[in-house]
Amino acid sequence: MTFPFPIVAPHLKVTSLVLADSTTGTGGTVTFPADINEGDIIIVAHGDRSASPSDGAGFTEIAKAGNTNGLYTDSGIILSYKVSDGTEGGATLGGWQSFNGSWGCAVYRPNIRATSVTVRDTVAYAGTGNNTSNTITASNSTNPTISVYAIWEAGNVMSSGYGTFSADGNDPITGATQLLSDNGGHGLIFYSKGQAVDGAFNIFANIGDIGVAASASGYLEVS
């Protein structure tokens, strides 16, 4: 039997995201998780005592901030991402600042290989006081999203509990992943959450009044 018209397969697209693996560490060299496939989204948050944040080759900046409050109070942070080519699993990459640096790396896996990422709704802050609270408006997206928020403080952020990643500014978001890394009393907190289109919602991010600090936030629209 022949058909007058060819049968066209439904268009495949990214509809969901899951956290595949994560790592944390210190210094200017990032060790990627072992579980990385081609088309995964690799996100690195890096904080250090530098006013000039930088990232590794092949990564695209999401948001960054760096202050200039002197040698012992500088704080810098950078969020960046890469669509994996499938070779990064377990590998290391330098290029991030190493002065008391701390980092976290999260790998999100879409239901099919991602081919495009668009950065949306970014906010970056570096200073000596309380920055303006900001909202990541991921509900505007028509594609699955990865919301990210990272904070670095030139003080012991690890035990101070500063920073929130929540719908109302108080309670942690269900399913959000928190990665912590510390280097000599200087710390990074990195939150991330993958969301399907029908589950995307606005996220309130607030660094709090922590003195000298840097933060970066935003979301990635994955297709």
Summarize the structure.
The protein is mainly beta and 223 residues long. It has one helix and 15 strands, in the order ββββββββββαβββββ.
Helix and strand arrangement:
Blueprint: E1 17-26, E2 30-31, E3 41-48, E4 60-66, E5 76-83, E6 92-93, E7 102-110, E8 117-127, E9 134-137, E10 145-153, H1 157-160, E11 164-166, E12 177-183, E13 186-195, E14 202-206, E15 213-222
Antiparallel strand pairs: 1-7, 2-6, 3-5, 3-7, 4-5, 8-15, 9-14, 10-13, 10-15, 11-14, 12-13
Description:
The protein has 223 residues and is mainly beta. It has one domain. Helix content is 2%, strand content 47%. It has one helix and 15 strands. The strands form four sheets. It has a five-stranded antiparallel β-sheet, with no helix packed on it. Strands 8-15-10-13-12 form a five-stranded antiparallel β-sheet, with no helix packed on it. The longest helix has 4 residues, at 157-160. The protein is globular. Mean pLDDT is 82; it is low at 156-164 and 167-171.
Low-pLDDT windows of residues: 156-164, 167-171
What is the average of the pLDDT values? 82
Report the end-to-end length measured between terminal Cα atoms: 37 Å
Strand content: over 45%
How many domains would you count in the coordinates?
1
Individual helix count:
1
| Largest sheet report | 5 strands, antiparallel
Strand order of the largest sheet: 1-7-3-5-4
- Determine the fraction of residues in helical runs and give it as a percent range: under 10%
Order of helices and strands: EEEEEEEEEEHEEEEE
Which overall shape is indicated by the principal axes computed on the Cα atoms? globular
Please tell me how large the radius of gyration is.
18 Å
Structural class by sheet pairing and helices: mainly beta
Number of strands: 15
